[in-house]
Design a protein that fits this description.
The protein is an all-alpha fold and 149 residues long. The protein has five helices and no strands. The relative contact order is 0.09.
Length: 149
């Protein structure tokens, strides 16, 4: 019985080691990983973005948490299926996400809006005042006839 149990134990140990080494030696199953991130990560992202007003899709403060969850989802799944992260599958996935959800956004990822009035007012007031001052100076100087300077 002892030789049989030893060989059985040895075979079990070999299978255990093979189960740990073989997936990393074989590498990533790209098709499975791609299907999984589309089924799990993209579906949740689509649901979360659907709950957000479409006008806020380009607002980084409003979408950052949803986007971070999507990124984390692709990373965690890559770890589970022994894939490197980032990889070409993830790159294509995020390009697809950006084409669908963020194609109308500015390159900076922010909504474009006017600056606050405290910043905008000096940029308007100073040129107007300088123009009025120079015009008044020219008119005043043209009315004075004595001396050139």
């Amino acid at each position: 019985m002892a030789p049989e149990s030893a060989s059985l134990l040895r075979a079990g140990l070999v299978l255990l080691v093979a189960a740990q080494v073989l997936p990393s030696a074989c590498g990533c199953n790209g098709g499975f990983y791609e299907r999984t991130i589309n089924d799990l990560c993209a579906a949740k992202f689509k649901f979360d973005m659907g709950g957000l007003d479409r006008g806020l899709w380009c607002s980084w403060p409003d979408t950052t948490e949803i986007y971070e969850e999507l990124t984390n989802c692709t990373y965690q799944l890559a770890l589970k299926v022994d894939c490197f992260w980032p990889n070409q599958i993830v790159d294509r996935f995020f390009v697809q996400i950006h084409r669908i959800y963020f194609h109308d956004c500015a390159l900076t990822g922010r909504l474009l809006h006017d600056p606050p009035i405290g910043i905008l007012a000096p940029f308007i007031a100073v040129p107007v005042l300088v123009t009025l001052l120079v015009t008044a100076l020219v008119v005043w100087r043209s009315k004075r006839t004595e001396g050139v300077l």
